[in-house]
Amino acid sequence: MSLNLDPLLDEKFILTISQIFPEFLDKNLGVYAAREAFGPSKNEGFCYENCTSVEFKGEAEGRLFLAMDGYTKLKLLPKIARSFHIDPTIRSHAASIMLEFANQICAELISEMKLGRFEIDILPPENLNHKLVPVDLEHYRQYILIYFLKDESAKQYLGRIYLILLMKKY
Q1: Are the C-beta atoms of 10 and 143 separated by less than 8 Å?
Q2: How many CA atoms, within 13 angstroms, populate the side-chain half-sphere of residue 57?
Q3: Does residue 16 contact residue 95 with C-beta atoms inside 8 Å?
Q4: What is the rounded distance in angstroms from the CA atom of residue 170 to the CA atom of residue 164?
Q5: What 3-state class would DSSP assign to 99?
Q6: How far apart are CA 89 and CA 8, in angstroms?
Q7: Going from the N-terminus, what domains does the chain have, and what CATH number goes with each?
Q8: What does the pLDDT look like over 114-135, one tens digit per residue?
Q9: The model's pTM
Q10: How far is CA 31 from CA 11, 19, 96, 169, in A?
Q11: Contact 116/11 with Cβ under 8 angstroms?
């Protein structure tokens, strides 16, 4: 049976993201991520102050977008930079730090999916900051997961992260 016909494929991706994303943030940044909302979306496009896309291809095809507003990026960037052992005060590194952060999250997702015997590879991340991203609803199913971020040790609200998953229809 072809995996392209698996009716639960999208659900497998969403459940896997729902599991690995909070664990990834906790393990690497010490940040608590509570899922506020998730579900299918019919948005014809979106635009965020900070948005990174990682495309994946293989038995399942689609794109994962990691999006946030400026406040969230401002709060998270120093934590992400420290986890990469980079000086967060060097402004020129900000875009590449966020690209690598999204790439690592997607790599975790793909690693988990490969454990489930899916043959999938990721392409290099793409910076889509301040760009209108159209969504072709005829060819893609869209899901959005919204996470509330909090630094438990500093008792500080860090903002929200939006994970947008586009899965190619077959």
Answers
A1: yes
A2: 2
A3: no
A4: 19
A5: helix
A6: 44
A7: 3-168 (3.40.1550.10)
A8: 888 888 899 999 999 999 999 9
A9: 0.89
A10: 25, 15, 21, 34
A11: no
